[in-house]
Every structure is written in C-alpha cells, then in structure tokens.
Amino acid sequence: MISAFQLAIISAGVFFLNGLLTGVWKFNQISKSVDGKAHPYVDISHRSSLLYSFAAILIANFVYISKLPNEIELIATIALVAYFAFAILSYMVQGFKQTTDNQLREVTKTTRIFMWSLIVAEIGGFLILFYGVLISF
C-alpha cells in the first residue's frame, strides 16, 4: 500500500508536470491571441498546478514529521491531494470549454455542496497533518 509521504511526493510530481504542460497550452493561446492573453481558466489551471505541486511538497514534509498513525496521515493526504486535483481538473475543463471567466458566477446546489466538501477536506486534512507536526515536538 502507498504511504501518505509517497502519495504527496507523486502528487507533487504530477501537479508540477501538469503545470509545465498547461504552461505550453497557455503560451500557445497567448501567441495566437489578439490581446496577448490566454483564457483566464487556462492561466488559472497553469498557476494552480504549479502552486499545488509545492503544496504537495509541504504536505509530504508534514507527513514526514508527523507522529500520527499512518492510516490517519494517508486519509488526510488523500483528502488534500484529491481536492487539489479536482480543482485543477475543473479549471482545465473551463479552459477547454471557454464558456465562462467565472465558474462560480451562477452557483448550483451541486457546486455549493462540492465547494463545502472541498473546504472541509482541505482545511480538515491540513489541520490533521499540522496537529501531527505539533505533537511531534
């Protein structure tokens, strides 16, 4: 079974690679655009991929330091990186569709539920790992 540390490191690599690839996508759109800009969600998917790659490295370090049981660290890490991936994927879909510059302009019940679950998973997952770090000192 994969460890929380391994999951975080692999996620960092996948997110960083996605950041590089979406950077090519962004450059291609900029070079073909009259105003020299990529679609906002192409730009957001590029930046968020890079930022989440470094967030995943932070998570890996917290897991490394944490004194919590491996199962708890793995659940917290899965929650964090899964929602990071869902966010990036949603930005990429909006970049491909190019139908909006604000996917939250008209929030549906499903979107609201997803956003609240994202908030709980990301903040909750991080708080668990941060607690694991704090008790290690």
Report what the structure shows:
The chain is mostly helical. About 80% of the residues lie in helices and about 0% in strands. It has 4 helices and no strands. It starts with a helix and ends with a helix.
Strand runs, count: 0
Rg for CA atoms: 17 Å
Count of structural domains: 1
Q: What is the succession of H and E elements?
A: HHHH
Task: Provide keyphrases for this structure.
137 residues; mainly alpha; 4 helices
Report a brief summary of the structure.
The chain has 137 residues and is an all-alpha fold. 80% of the residues lie in helices and 0% in strands.
Secondary structure layout:
Elements: H1 4-32, H2 40-65, H3 70-97, H4 109-134
